[in-house]
Amino acid sequence: MSELDVTDGFDVHEYREGFKLRKETRETMHLENRAGYDCPVCGSPFEKLFASEKREHTFQSPPGPFCLVRTDDQLLLFTHS
Q1: pLDDT tens for residues 4-43?
Q2: pLDDT (0 to 100) of residue 1
């Protein structure tokens, strides 16, 4: 599958056909990777993506390995199995 391009930030609308929206607030989104997109950090397919425009977050440990990317406007957390 194709790798998400986050070079100039992440716009969910460019990839919306491959994601299922799980939860959304004004500043965050939880998405499920239905298209098998590859992670922009490690190149492997990821299961879920958490995107946030908030400056700070506290996370419970996600199960399995995860990757983080910081764009100019967002923090992106990719979870893998």
Answers
A1: 889 989 999 899 899 999 999 999 999 999 999 999 999 9
A2: 63
Q: For residue 58, what pLDDT is reported?
A: 86
Helix/strand/coil percentages in the chain, nearest 5:
5, 40, 55
Pairwise CA distance, residues 12 & 4, whole Å: 10
Residues in Cβ contact with 42 at an 8 Å cutoff, skipping those fewer than 6 apart: 67, 80
Q: Which residues pair with 68 in a beta bridge?
A: 77
- Cα torsion at 36, 38, 43, 48 (round to 10°)? -90
HSE at residue 12, side-chain half, CA atoms within 13 A, is 18
Helix, coil or strand: residue 16: helix
